[in-house]
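Methods — Computational structure assignment.
A single polypeptide chain was analysed. Its primary sequence is given first, followed by the predicted tertiary structure written as C-alpha cells.
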Amino acid sequence: MSAILSLHDVSKSFGALTVTDSVTFDVPEGQALGIIGPNGAGKSTLFNLITGNLAADAGRIEYLGRDVTRTPPMQRCLSGIGRSFQIPQPFDRLTVFENLLVAATHGRGLPERAVEEDCAAILERTELIAAANRPAGTLSLLQRKRLELARAMATRPKLLLLDEIAGGLTEGECVALVDTIRAIHREGVTIIWIEHVIHALTRVVERLLVLDFGKVIGIGEPDAIMASKEVREIYLGIEI
C-alpha cells in the first residue's frame, strides 16, 4: 500500500527549544494513525508542519509522492489535506451552514452553488442539520466539535487531521462522535488523530505513534504500543 504522507527527519525549533526532533514516519493511504504523548510533546506542532502553518527547519514532507515541504498551507488544503483544531474556531456570527460554505468554497476552490448540496449532506452525516441555520456561536461544545469535523470534511480531504476532537466531551458524546469518525474512515479517508482519550482513539486507528519531547519513541499496533515499558513510563507516568 502506497504512503499518502511521508515525513523524513523533520525538525522544528523555537530558539533553543527543539519541538520536533528528526521525526520520520509513513502513513499508508486509507489507514488511521493515532498520535499520543504528554502535553508539550510536540503533537500540535507536528500537525502545523504537515499543514504548512509552520515551516520545517530541516527534513522533507511528502504528500501523494510530492515534496510539499515548502508548499503554502492553502495549496496543501486544496490538494486534500484537511484538519480540525483542538479549540474549535468557527465563525461565530455565521450560521453553521455558512461556516461549511466558507470551508468548501475556499478549501476546494469552487463556487457556492457547486458545494451547497454537498455541505447539506455533510451536516446530515455529522448530525448538525437541525442546527444548520443557527449562529455557530450558540452551539454546545459537542456541536462545536462536530462543526470542526464538518468544516474539515467540507474541504473534501484525502488526509484528515484531527486534533483532540474528543477532548472535553462526556462518555456518551464521545461515543457518538467516534461513530461518525469511524464511518468517515470506512469510506476510505486517511486519518491522523491526536488524542488523549485513548479508548476513543483505539476504536478507530490501526496504528499508534508516540511522541515525547519531539521524538518518536514508538509506532505500531495499538495494543503493543500501550503495553510497551517505555510508553507506560513516559506517557502514562507508570514506573516499571
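Note: The chain is about 35% helix and 25% strand.
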